[in-house]
Every structure is written in structure tokens, then in C-alpha cells.
Amino acid sequence: MGGFWLLLPFLFIRFVLLAALNKEAVGRAAYFAPMQGKERIAYYVYQISNGVLLLFLVLGRGRVDFSWWFYLGVLCYVIGLCLCAAAVVCFSAPDGDGINRSGVYKISRNPMYVAYFICFTGMALLMQSLVLLAVVVVFQVSAHWIILAEERWCMETFGVGYEQYMKEVRRYL
User: Fold this and answer.
1) Structure confidence by residue, pLDDT tens digits, 131-165
2) Contact at 8 Å (CB) between 168 and 107?
3) Integer Cα distance of 131 and 113 in angstroms
4) Is the entire prediction scored with pTM above 0.85?
5) CA atoms within 13 A on the CB side of 86
6) CA 121 → CA 60, 75, 133, 138, distances in Å?
7) Gap between the Cα atoms of 165 and 130, Å rounded
8) Could you give the CA distance from residue 6 to residue 113 in angstroms, rounded to a whole number?
9) What is the per-residue DSSP string for 131-156?
10) How far apart are CA 108 and CA 85, in angstroms?
């Protein structure tokens, strides 16, 4: 099984569905909050790991052998895609003050990042690649630093409304 085929539904949800729902949301999703200190390093690690992950999936080959890796991979992949689709739908329609609080954003302040991690973990399991799984972990650890920068930016931008949201909803799950 080629990783490229695993990427197609993910990319469709992440970009085509989001653009179809709200073209302005694509720009918001692509925006990175201003980084400070170590966050800048994390940003570069995030971008490099994202590139390696995509390149590995495009060029890599996995095996379909119906082992526990396969079934766990399918489960993670499907859950990740569904969560990503739900997050994209909610992200495309923020509240009047610009904060996303509906749907999966009631459970997690960062459901897209959670979805990416679950989906990419599923892809690594389906590809049966510990190297790809390690890249996914690096990707997610660096994403945490980006999330911290985003939270700081949201506090500065949305003030008390976002502070209250932070008290009500967890960062991840």
C-alpha cells in the first residue's frame, strides 16, 4: 500500500473541504501566531518534520498483512480523518467573536492537532514504519510549542473570552 493514497483523504479534508466551507478559514488555518524564543526552533522542527512526513508517505510503501498493526492503523486513521473533518467543519464557522467553541471545540481547544496526530499515527502503523512513527512524535512535540504560541496570541487577541474558554476546555483531550 502506498502512503500517497493514505494522504489523499487527509489532504482533501484539510484543504478542499475547508475551502468549500469557508475560503477565509483556509487563511486562518494557515496563519502561525508570532513565535518567541524556543518556539521559533519548534516552528522549524514542525515544518521540517511535516515535510519529512509528507515525503515519506508519498514515496513510502507499506504492507497489508492484517496484523494487529494493520487493524490498529486502520482504527487510528479512520478516527483521525473523522475528527479532522469534524474540526474543519467547526473551524469554518467561528463564533461572532472569532473563537471556535462549537462541536469538537467543546472538548478540545486544538482538535485539528489532535486529529493530525491520530491520523498520522494511523498512517505510520499502516505503513509499518517505526521511523515514520518517530517523525510523527517529533511533529507532535513541536506542534505543542506552536500551540503555546497560538494560545498566547489568542489571549492577546480575544482577551477574557478566550481566558474563560481555556478554563472550560482542555488543551488536547
Assistant:
1) 999 999 999 999 999 999 999 999 999 999 999 99
2) no
3) 20
4) yes
5) 19
6) 15, 10, 6, 12
7) 37
8) 18
9) HHHHHHHHHHHHHHHHHHHHHHHHHH
10) 14
